[in-house]
Design goal:
The complex is a heterodimer of chains A (287) and B (136). Chain A has 287 residues and is an alpha/beta fold. Chain A contains 10 helices and 6 strands. Chain A folds into 2 domains: 139 residues, no CATH class; 123 residues, no CATH class. Chain A is globular, with a radius of gyration of 20 Å. Chain B has a 4-stranded parallel β-sheet, with helices on both faces. In chain B, helix 3 links the parallel strand 3 and strand 4. Classes of the chains: A alpha/beta (287), B alpha/beta (136). At the A-B interface, helix 5, helix 6, helix 8 and helix 10 of A face helix 2, helix 3 and strand 4 of B.
Chain lengths: 287, 136
């Protein structure tokens, strides 16, 4: 799979750059440890040999498109990443005409290992039902059959705990948080010009080091992705203190699926659940 | 029911219906516990989830949001948006350890003064029973 995918991507990238269809191809190259992929920005046809694709290609490269506004760019997306592309298109953040999408049927991505190639699939791949890209101009790989609907077993397990236990759990996680905002920076859905967390008036999140402030940040970060999170789980992957952010994201995802039968990023003209309403719906609020 | 020792409830009331409803409770002499601290907002749709989470962070025991009944919003559709938003927020807060009973959303019209007093009384009693968040 790996070398074949890599070759197809290189050929396509070369073609796009030679024809001048795009200025830059955003893909993956082998990192300094010799086996982990890292993002690569290819501007010259001669450079395409740097591009690779294998199961260490974890990054969601769609985030970089926000830095390439107005410039014709090609991007390599896996299934989950392609949903975030749809998210940004539906929110009018990027221009479809400027983007060439190289979709890859995702084989699943592995955890990052220190000096060793890991075989352990990332947890996001356990719940993934989108190995095939939902949007692409050029597809690499044969589409696969997706598994049965997600049962959200991790969320259900968390919910067997009492409220007090859950509060203590999140309180402890908040004690670990250093508010580096890596979760925000990695997230394709977090692109506000002014994030609430940096506002000084009102100061929603104080500068002091305190779990309350961390909890405030983590709660609102998750909520601002309500109905928008496409579960690429980059936030959790980049967290330096391993806070299980997927639990928060997926708790909301399950609610959105249950109440509104909606999955984010499935089409480029989708209407997110929180920017619309139905007059006669029953949501257990004020009834 | 002492205010100093009782639960602290923050109430966000929409200007057009629920705040007027609370006013009606006053003019019709319907008493309700003073544990609720009322903040007047233009619309229940204006209540940003940030406000709710901040209340809990700063030590509130419970939060009440009240707005016009669906269909009666002064701005036609503000409360429809808030209904969706709070349905999700409530689930998230409960998951993070703030019981869903502590965050209540009610529709109170300007004429429902007595009902407003009843809602606040019942809510306060429930919170007394549940106890302070800090104690838990």
């Amino acid at each position: 799979m790996g070398s074949d995918f890599t070759q197809q991507i290189r050929d396509k990238a070369k073609e796009l750059l030679e024809k001048g269809t795009v200025e830059c191809v955003i893909g993956y190259e082998t990192g300094s440890d010799g086996f982990s992929a890292r993002p690569a920005f290819i501007y010259e046809p001669a450079e395409v040999e740097r591009l690779v694709f294998d199961n260490t290609c974890s990054h969601n490269l769609v985030k970089y498109l926000l830095n390439k506004k107005g410039k014709p760019t090609a991007v390599i997306v896996k299934g989950c990443d392609s949903r975030s592309l749809n998210l940004l298109l539906s929110e009018k953040q990027i221009d479809r005409d400027n983007i060439f999408i190289i979709g890859v049927v995702c084989p699943g991505v592995v955890e990052w290992g220190w000096n060793n190639r890991s075989d352990q699939l990332q947890i996001r791949c356990n719940w993934c039902r989108q190995h095939n890209p939902v949007i692409y101009d050029f597809l690499v790989g044969e589409p696969v059959t997706e598994g049965p609907p997600d049962d959200f077993a991790d969320i259900a397990a968390m919910e067997t705990k009492s409220t007090e236990e859950r509060e203590a759990f999140w309180r402890e996680q908040a004690e670990h948080c250093v508010r580096c905002y890596a979760c925000r920076q990695a997230c394709p859905g977090c692109y506000c010009i002014d994030c609430f967390v940096e506002q000084l008036d009102p100061e929603w999140v104080g500068i002091r080091i305190a779990p309350e402030e961390n909890l405030m940040w983590n709660t609102i970060r998750a909520f601002h992705l309500a109905g928008r999170c496409i579960s690429c789980n980059e936030c959790e992957r980049v967290c330096p203190v391993n806070i299980p952010l997927s639990l928060l994201n997926r708790r909301i995802e399950r609610e959105v699926l249950g109440l509104f039968d909606y999955r984010a990023g499935m089409s480029e003209d989708a209407v997110a659940p929180l920017i619309t309403f139905m007059k006669d719906e029953k949501l257990g609020i004020g009834e | 029911m002492s205010v100093d020792n009782g639960p602290l409830i923050i109430g966000f009331l929409c200007n057009w219906c629920s705040y007027a409803g609370a006013d009606m409770a006053g003019t019709s002499r319907a008493a309700y516990p003073a544990n609720i601290r009322i903040i007047r907002v233009p619309c229940s749709g204006r209540v940003d989830p940030l406000l709710i989470v901040k209340c809990f962070e700063e030590g509130a025991d419970a939060v009440l949001v009240a707005g016009c009944h669906p269909g009666d919003c002064h701005y036609n559709e503000g409360n429809y948006y808030s209904r969706r938003r709070f349905a999700l927020l409530r689930a998230l807060l409960d998951f993070m350890g703030i019981e869903k009973e502590r965050f209540q959303v009610e529709w109170v019209s300007a004429s429902e003064g007595k009902r407003f007093a009843k809602i606040v009384t019942k809510f306060t009693e429930e919170m007394i029973e549940r106890g302070s968040r800090k104690a838990s």
